Hints:
Elements: E1 2-10, E2 13-22, H1 28-43, H2 52-61, E3 63-66, E4 79-86
Antiparallel strand pairs: 1-2, 1-4, 3-4
Amino acid sequence: MFRLWGKILKDNRLIKDTVVTDDTDCSRTQKILEALESICLQFDLSKPIWLELNINEFKMRGKTRFYPDSFIEPIDFDYLEIQILEE
């Protein structure tokens, strides 16, 4: 079972969080992108842009943070963090 945790933080405080699960036979990349889309829908956010920093950090640690420069629209929090909980 694949689980991705998404959380919004502002001033080092957790504002919102959610966990998305996926039991399909899709590729790992597809599961991550679909889970991120689901998280953004739940939080009413535009999808962030994956920068090279995000890709490298996610490959090494299984988590990454999307800062305001990753979003097209302005955001009212410090960052969105996603983290793989289980694969």
